[in-house]
Fold this protein.
Amino acid sequence: MISKHSVRIILVVLSVVVMAGGGLLVKAQLIPKSFGLYGSYRADAIEEEAQKVVRHGTNKSCFECHPYEAKIHLQGDHKTISCEFCHSTYADHVSNGKRTAALPVKKGEEITTLCLRCHNTEIKARSTIVIKTVGMPDHLKQQNVKLTHTCNQCHHVHAPLKYINEAKKITGLMEEKP
Ligand code: HEC
Ligand code: HEC
Ligand code: HEC
Ligand code: HEC
């Protein structure tokens, strides 16, 4: 005779066995085939990633078609900045070595917003040793200009100190001979 107590224990053990077995079965169904072939990841993922269309180019990839911008960019303080940060991805514009569409070109206020994404003093997490920042509208007040001025009215977008330095030289000369 099995006591009521033993029946309960058997039921508990049985349900544990059924749950564990079921769990293992579901796990076997859900794990992708190529998982674990090289390591604890899906081996097929490598091939799938490699098949993806390349969307970004290097700055060098822009240079052959844009020699004018390339020359200015390489001479200025923005030479380390990616063209695509300010414009858009290579693939939106060029396919198989041919221009296929237009890239967005920012204007006016949009340019100020773009510049301040990197140069805003308000970004406290960024060290000013790494990148020089300005506070707005203080920077414009210091220059004694209307606060509606956009950054590119004084700074060349591709080489931001290009004309500033020349302007400083000229104003410097004027100060000597008023
Ligand atoms: C810091 C942001 C920034 C970077 C980096 C940058 N550009 Fe620009 N670029 C702009 C802005 C803003 C304009 C439009 C305003 C202007 O020309 O003053 C522009 C204008 C242009 C134009 C002229 C578009 C037109 O039809 O008016 C071309 C072409 C261009 N850039 C290519 C490049 C290439 C190539 C690179 C990399 C070597 C590059 N840019 C890097 C911001 C940038
Ligand atoms: C295969 C040549 C080619 C390559 C590579 C190329 N461009 Fe262009 N791009 C053009 C042509 C052609 C135009 C039309 C205007 C012109 O003749 O300058 C243009 C125009 C532009 C413009 C003005 C907006 C427009 O689309 O009309 C920008 C900005 C620009 N390119 C940025 C870039 C950047 C950034 C790269 C690299 C990521 C790049 N280009 C790579 C050929 C190219
Ligand atoms: C992706 C980030 C980024 C963007 C966007 C950007 N810059 Fe820069 N800028 C830099 C870096 C990095 C330098 C080189 C380090 C430095 O001098 O601060 C630099 C240098 C400069 C300098 C020279 C600072 C000095 O005295 O040495 C000026 C001026 C400047 N940028 C203005 C602008 C303007 C205007 C715009 C918008 C058209 C702009 N930047 C957009 C990152 C950026
Ligand atoms: C009215 C002209 C003018 C406008 C508009 C202007 N700047 Fe300047 N900026 C200057 C001058 C002049 C300097 C000083 C350059 C120097 O001392 O070498 C300067 C310097 C800078 C510097 C270097 C600061 C440093 O610590 O050395 C940065 C960064 C800068 N500007 C970014 C910007 C940004 C971003 C905008 C738009 C929000 C902007 N500027 C708008 C004229 C201007």
Residues 59, 62, 66, 69-70, 73, 78, 81, 83, 85-87, 105-106, 111, 152, 157-158 surround heme C (ligand 1) (CB under 6 Å).
